[in-house]
Amino acid sequence: MNENIGKVLQLAQDSTKRFAPTKLGWSWGQALFLYGLALIDQESGADKYQDYLKEYYDYYIKKGHRVNTSDTSAPGLGAYILYRQTGEEKYFAEAMRTRQYIADAPKVVEVCPII
Fold first, then answer.
1. For the segment 62-92, what is each residue's pLDDT rounded down to a tens digit?
2. I need a surface site. Which of 52, 68, 75, 87 has the fewest CB within 10 A?
3. Which pLDDT belongs to residue 113?
């Protein structure tokens, strides 16, 4: 195994032990971390981090959260991957919230048209 891949896998393992999924925020940085975990599972063919991802998304589905900025829409990507892995509609609904935000949000060109 490539030394760098080994470091990534170790970092993922250490990080999931160190940071409880219910203590992570709902923003792009955490979304990137979760997306990385989902990709590790996808590439390895294992579901090593699926329970971690489910705990995160289930927590926010129950607690509630906003999807009203680019930062708060980022977790939708991980929700979509989780839906594809599990087929559970609640994760699809989360991904669709992001899709709806992207469809409805003002675009820079609309806000500041080029003259």
1. 999 999 999 999 999 999 999 999 999 999 9
2. 87
3. 62
Asked whether residue 82 is domain-assigned, the answer is yes
Residues 6+ apart with CB under 8 A from 61: 90, 94
Q: How far is CA 45 from CA 1, 4, 23, 48, in A?
A: 16, 19, 27, 9
Q: What is the pLDDT of residue 53?
A: 98
Q: Does residue 38 sit within a domain?
A: yes
Query: What is the tally of structural domains in the chain?
Result: 1
79 within a domain of the structure (yes/no): yes
